[in-house]
Amino acid sequence: MVMVYQYIGVLIGVLGTIYTLLRFREGKMSLGMLLVWSAIWIIIILISLFPAETGAFAPLLGIGRGLDLVFILGLIGCYYLIFRIYNMIENVEQEITHLVREIALQRENMDIKPEEDKEN
Amino acid sequence: MLIETYEKRNPHNLFPESDLEIWIIIPAYNEEKIIGKVLKELFDMGLNLIVIDDGSWDNTYQITQQIIKNYPGRGYLYKHPINRGLGATLKTGIEAALKKNADIMVTFDADGQHNAGDILPVCYPIVEGRADVVIGKRDFDEMPQQKKRANQIMNLITRIFYGVHVQDSQSGLRAFNRNAAIALDIESREYGVSSEIVREINHKNLRMEEVPIETIYTDYSLSKGTNARIGFKILIKMIRDILK
Fold first, then answer.
1. Across the strands, what pairs with B138?
2. For a Cys-Cys bond, which of A35, A41, B84, B211 suits A16, CB 3.0-4.6 Å?
3. ipTM of this predicted complex?
């Protein structure tokens, strides 16, 4: 019997893949991120199509049911992504600060010097 | 007039026997109400000033500009196009002062809470070669209760995380010699910079001295500076530093 979540899962996976491919085509995503995201979407589609198969992997990690394994891995994946994004933002902040400081130093007494020159 | 100007330009009347150049670094963020008075007082003492406007949205920049024009060659103004926090601002100031060949750099808050007369005592241990960094320590007993508590907690946190005990970790009045200024490795963009400076003193084995200074508490300066929210932010930053 096909459950509703399976349709939703496949739909999300397909939409995600399309969005990822579009982002890559527009040059807004690196090749590495394309591969990572494609893999994530494909796994979501596969799990939705064959939910029973996850039961084969669960015992390996000492987890009872296949879908529990999926949820746990999904949560870990989410946290990992948040961590990555947090680090990225931190890097961007640092780069902005670097730029701002550089601009400030280059524009020393920016609006003061020209008048001095005129006086001289 | 010329002689008078020359005398004003010569900052060494603070220490007639030494020719160390002292530059005052003034980080400013939305201080239009008071910065004019602070800058004029320091200029009139014969000091060289570096003012960094950290993306203020009031008239801090314009006011500073007008004043610096009256003291040619003795004041330099830098503007962060967007607000980046105290840490980044001090870093810009130190870099600028090093380029001006400063021998001693003094950080001085723009909000009028410091007494300009304390600059000399803060520089003294460096002039005498006893210290690389001098921290001006405020008298906690004179502080309003809430400020006192906040500063004591910051001292404790600084001690726990960075293993250094200083009597006033959050003081804005400090002096550095050239070696110390070059050695400082500041990453914190915000108020955490004060504790980070203490950490650097420890890591880089800089000689530190603490000198008592006066703090002028007005309603204006009380509304600024370290409060519980900023303290909490600094704590989070320190925990992150350790986990890194």
1. B213
2. A41
3. 0.77
